[in-house]
């Protein structure tokens, strides 16, 4: 099964993706983890990505796409994957589609964790992270709404909308039920 999980920051994507991937026996592929692994290992792509990150810039799509494509080649991804944090934009989704077509694969379902902005703000402020100020959170949510929400139309036929409010186990059960697992 090839799945994507999308939703705003603070919706619980990482937590839910880890639980679901373990349940399905597929890897949870987080772009954050891919970046850290490539930078830490000093791969060619990692060194390139680090130059952008050190300058405070976003890593270009080509570099991110290349890292994701390389991750799909690892043996544990042969039976499928749960991709978290990518794609975030329609151009990235187009590139992902190209990668998968070359492999004779496609995305099966896209899980959308829906959580109202007010609850996301409360959740992120409660984490107590230095970069989680009300202003910074509002900017990140605005970016989500303008850049990531268009993915919902792109993946309309594959979208599984999940209420992301509630206990972790409740949300996980909603996801599994919606996927028929």
From TrEMBL:
Keywords: ATP-binding, Cytoplasm, Kinase, Nucleotide biosynthesis, Nucleotide-binding, Transferase. Its main location: cytoplasm. It catalyses: AMP + ATP = 2 ADP. It is found in: Cytoplasm. This is Adenylate kinase. InterPro entries: Adenylat/UMP-CMP_kin (IPR000850), Adenylat_kinase_CS (IPR033690), P-loop_NTPase (IPR027417). Residues 30-59 are annotated as: NMP. HAMAP family: Adenylate_kinase_Adk. Belongs to the adenylate kinase family. SUPFAM superfamilies: P-loop containing nucleoside triphosphate hydrolases (SSF52540). Catalyzes the reversible transfer of the terminal phosphate group between ATP and AMP. Plays an important role in cellular energy homeostasis and in adenine nucleotide metabolism. Monomer. Consists of three domains, a large central CORE domain and two small peripheral domains, NMPbind and LID, which undergo movements during catalysis. The LID domain closes over the site of phosphoryl transfer upon ATP binding. Assembling and dissambling the active center during each catalytic cycle provides an effective means to prevent ATP hydrolysis. Gene3D superfamilies: P-loop containing nucleotide triphosphate hydrolases. It comes from Nakamurella multipartita (strain ATCC 700099 / DSM 44233 / CIP 104796 / JCM 9543 / NBRC 105858 / Y-104) (Microsphaera multipartita). GO terms for molecular function: AMP kinase activity; ATP binding.
């Amino acid at each position: 099964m090839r799945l994507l999980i999308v939703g705003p920051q603070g919706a619980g994507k990482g937590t839910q993706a880890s639980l679901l991937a373990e349940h399905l026996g597929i890897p949870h592929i987080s772009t954050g983890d891919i970046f850290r692994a490539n930078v830490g290992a000093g791969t060619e792509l990692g060194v390139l990505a680090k130059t952008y990150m050190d300058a405070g810039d976003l890593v270009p799509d080509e570099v991110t796409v290349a890292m994701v494509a390389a991750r799909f080649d690892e043996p544990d991804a042969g039976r499928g994957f749960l991709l978290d944090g990518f794609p975030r934009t329609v151009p990235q989704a187009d590139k992902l589609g190209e990668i998968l077509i070359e492999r004779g694969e496609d995305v099966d379902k896209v899980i959308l964790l829906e959580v109202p902005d007010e609850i996301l703000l409360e959740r992120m402020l409660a984490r107590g992270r230095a970069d989680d100020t009300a202003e910074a959170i509002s900017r990140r949510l605005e970016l989500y709404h303008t850049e990531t929400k268009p993915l919902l139309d792109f993946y309309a036929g594959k979208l599984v909308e999940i209420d992301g409010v509630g206990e972790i186990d409740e949300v996980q059960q909603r996801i599994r039920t919606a996927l028929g697992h």
